[in-house]
Amino acid sequence: MDQEKQITLTSLFEVVSSIERKWANEWNNQNVLGFSKSHILILDYLSQEGPKRPSAIADRLKVTTGGVTVLTSKLINAGFIEKTQHATDRRAFQLIITPDGKDILEKSRQQVSEILNNMFGMLSAEEIQTLREIFAKLLNSESTR
């Protein structure tokens, strides 16, 4: 890699790190619900896709099944998701969002919308789409190594 590209990539790394910190700070400052982004992503996934096994959630969030257990325990204890028996495999269970979970998800969507607007509201729809495509490409290249 040539030196100019290396310098530019280092600068990009610094910018992305700063954006990540800003995003975390925005989340922490506005997070009145007490749940992490991962908790909200689980609720959203179950709301959109229906009951899922922990392994499917782990795949979606790119975490271990042990990580899913830790995350879902808080949601189960709060009454936002429930364990149910798998429809075809009586030995397995699935997780399903509850009505209270749907309510808290709706509140969190409003919170997330405010954060996203604060962070990305100055960008055009085209710029946001370009960013999304670039970040998706980076994530996909990681899995092809």
TrEMBL record:
SUPFAM superfamilies: Winged helix' DNA-binding domain (SSF46785). Residues 9-140 form the HTH marR-type domain. The keyword DNA-binding applies. Keywords: DNA-binding. The keyword DNA-binding applies. This is MarR family winged helix-turn-helix transcriptional regulator. The lineage of its organism: Bacteria, Bacillati, Bacillota, Bacilli, Bacillales.
